[in-house]
Amino acid sequence: MIQKTKNRISNILNETSEDDASARVFNVCIITLILLNVFVAIMETVEGFSSRYQILFKMFETFSIIIFTLEYFLRLWTCTADGRFKSAVGGRVRYAVTPFALVDLMAILPFYLPMILPCDLRIIRALRLFRLLRILKMGRYSESLRTLENVLKEKKEELLIALFTVLILLVVASSLIYFVENTVQPESFSSIPATMWWGVATLTTVGYGDIYPITPLGKFFGAIVAILGVGIIAIPAGILTSGFTREIQRKHGKRDLCPHCGKDISEPPERSQNTE
């Protein structure tokens, strides 16, 4: 009976079946509660709202903490229904350190820490910022966020290479501009790390205009960096677009066929086996 109840709760929490009405209702309620929590956390920074609705905000916070705490411990109790966490103790420990479980814990921890540890009031106020982590809990309830997670996992190597390329270009561009502009603008371009602020603003084509080169050579280098930034910053967007396209095709059962040979190239090639 207990095992059957545990399995049922696990199915609702993890939505193992798309036809489960209880799981869908639970997901909608949790997502709504998360969004309301983020909204309240934002509105509490507005002085007029904070003073006027302080009691209401505290009541809603307490209600949310009760729901999120109950959800966390139910997930911790039912995680053994998953084959990956079968062990009563070791399985729960392994589950507790998974990314989503850590997000769940961080979402409720700031509420309980001041009750346990004697903290400075400023530290307590800072811990309240962790309430915004509740929006990360939506990842387990939203199919779109799960798709994004799959794309990021699949394209992580390409994204890291693109990031590394941008960092190299940032260092080179900032170094060149520093050596060109430092003698005429020692305050604005005081060091290479300080010049990197100009490099970031130029590579991303934001161009705040707080610091900028004034020498002819510096302007020339600045123009080159701005043009390169248009292409370099667009690379991650292209990588993510390719990843989303492949992920959507995979979910809809469509194959990515080679236009020349007609073979399926959406999956990695099979290793050739040596035959005698």
UniProtKB/TrEMBL annotation:
GO terms for molecular function: voltage-gated potassium channel activity. One of its GO terms (biological process) is action potential. InterPro entries: Ion_trans_dom (IPR005821), VG_K_chnl (IPR028325), Volt_channel_dom_sf (IPR027359). Signal peptide: none annotated. Residues 24-250 form the Ion transport domain. GO terms for cellular component: voltage-gated potassium channel complex. It is a multi-pass membrane protein. The keyword Membrane applies. Keywords: Ion channel, Ion transport, Membrane, Potassium, Potassium channel, Potassium transport, Transmembrane, Transmembrane helix, Transport, Voltage-gated channel. PANTHER family: POTASSIUM VOLTAGE-GATED CHANNEL PROTEIN SHAB, VOLTAGE-GATED POTASSIUM CHANNEL. This is Potassium channel protein. It comes from Candidatus Brocadia sapporoensis.
